Every structure is written in structure tokens, then in C-alpha cells.
Amino acid sequence: MKERHWHEQCAIAEKIGKAGSFQKYAETLPDILNAVISKQEVCCIDEGTPDGIRFAGSGIYYVITQGTEKGKKGKEAIYAGLEAAAEAVKGSPAEFITSHDECGAAGLVFNEMPDSIKKEFGTSDNLGIYFAKELSKKTGLGYRHIGIKEMARPSGMHTAMFAYYDGTGKFNPDAVPGLPQGFVVSRKYLGKEEALREIELAPKIATGEHGYGGLIKPDKKFWLIAVAEDPWALESLVSELKPVSDSYKGKVKVEGFLVKA
């Protein structure tokens, strides 16, 4: 199954290469103007989740960036993450909060928790569900869970070799046939530091055991695509992504996509 997805992603990457750039390739797609979200839901950056406003683990990654990395532990770290996530959500047009099966961000947070928290929740998915429900209460928004059967990837593996750093807050690659499936981070609603920490997860996952691992190399790169609605914003987002790509020594490529009305 991994081989099939790998060949599909590589075939699209080859088409983009032949077109000369991601921008030129995307502009050949007749439905490119339809690449917008249809749901005002906070969901994960995972390539398998439905379209919406995208934060890692629907905001749970803040438990690490604003919790454990600030010296907080256990429930104190979780509450710090909830506060930060709620602020980000309030700055967006979100109407729902979601959680999903096999959430990698929830797994990272679970691994940072003391044994007492691990025992209380049992699994990382249960922790992710708890966080999303608490976030929905804190923001007054609805909540729903996304099961693996609703997701556009197989259980146990990630299939994307693209990730979108979305400065528009409404980009949805899944809405347009021909656009490569990918992780999405809603940069518009996240501060630069948090957004970069979240987009860094995409190539980390793709080059790890749950992604394509060693198949990604300088001649078969992972792509980071900055998305913006004006040239100046696009230039800035591309610049933000450069240090991420540089850390992968030729295995990660950065390009930009200017959304045109």
C-alpha cells in the first residue's frame, strides 16, 4: 500500500517539475480557484483530516510549546496548552473543534506526560479527545470526532510528501483534483514561532517510520509550499520556511503558491 501512495505522490511531483514550478503546475488545473475550505472547523494538520482550519492536533501541540517546554508538567501543561489554543481559535472563524483517530500530535504530548496522566487517559487518542472537548467548552464551539474511516489516509501510515504553509487561512488542496494531498498548517491564525514548530512536524513525519522514511532523499524531495494572496506575504512565508528545508540537507524543497482571484 505504501508503494502505491509513494508512486502517486512521485508522479505529481514529476508533473510539477516538468511544469517548471508549483505555481505554473497549479495554474494548469481548471478548478484551482476552488481550492478553499468548505468547513469552519478546527482540525489537525494531518493530511488525512477533512478540510478546515489547521492546527497540530487541533491545538494540542500547544501543550508542548506553551506547557512542557516552559517547565510545566502534567495537568498544568495541558491547561497552559488549552489557554494558548483557545486564543488562536478565537482569532479564527471556527465554529467546531475536532479530534481524530491516530493523532500524531496527541501522541507527542502523551509521551511528555507523567505516568499518572498516562494511566488516567490510557491512550494518546483519549488524551486528544479530552483536549478537543475541553477546547470546545472553553471557546463555546461545537465538537466532533473524526474516525479513521473518515480520513483520507490508511491507518498506521502517512502518505503525503507535500505540506502547505497557509497564509490565507482557507486553502484546501483536497478540493481540487490534481493538487497533491498534503499536511496543512494555518499560518494565518498562528504566530510565526508556533506555525514553524507545527510545519516542522510534516517532514519529520514523512521521513520517519510512519511516513516514507529513507525513500525521501535529494532526488525525491518532500515539498513545503507557502500559500499567500499577495506577493509580499508569499515572499515572507517562503523566507520563514527556508531554515526548515535547510535542516534536511537537500531532502526538502520550498516553493510558493500565489492564490489568484
Structure description:
- It is a single chain.
- With 261 residues, this protein is an alpha/beta fold.
- The chain folds into 2 domains: 2-40 and 153-258, no CATH class; 59-149, no CATH class.
- The protein is built from 10 helices and 8 strands.
- A 4-stranded parallel beta sheet has the order 2-1-3-4, covered by helices on one side.
- Helix 4 crosses helix 7 (124-139) and helix 5 (104-112) crosses helix 7 (124-139).
Secondary-structure map:
Blueprint: H1 2-19, H2 22-26, E1 41-43, E2 53-54, H3 62-65, H4 74-90, E3 96-100, H5 104-112, H6 115-121, H7 124-139, E4 142-146, E5 162-166, E6 183-185, H8 192-199, H9 201-206, E7 222-228, H10 231-246, E8 252-258
Parallel strand pairs: 1-2, 1-3, 3-4, 5-6, 5-7, 7-8
Helix pairs in contact: 4-7, 5-7
Give a quick summary of the entry.
This protein has 261 residues and is an alpha/beta fold. The protein has helices at residues 2-19, 22-26, 62-65, 74-90, 104-112, 115-121, 124-139, 192-199, 201-206, 231-246; strands spanning 41-43, 53-54, 96-100, 142-146, 162-166, 183-185, 222-228, 252-258.
Helix/strand-derived class? alpha/beta
Mean pLDDT: 96
Helix-residue proportion:
40-55%
Q: Based on DSSP secondary structure assignment, what is the total number of beta strands?
A: 8
Count of the separate structural domains: 2
Total number of helices: 10
- For the biggest β-sheet, the strand order reads 2-1-3-4
Which series of helices and strands comes N to C?
HHEEHHEHHHEEEHHEHE
Estimated radius of gyration: 18 Å
Major sheet = 4 strands, parallel
- The global form is globular
Ends distance = 37 Å
In the predicted model, the low-confidence regions spanning at least 5 consecutive residues are none
% residues in beta strands: 5-15%
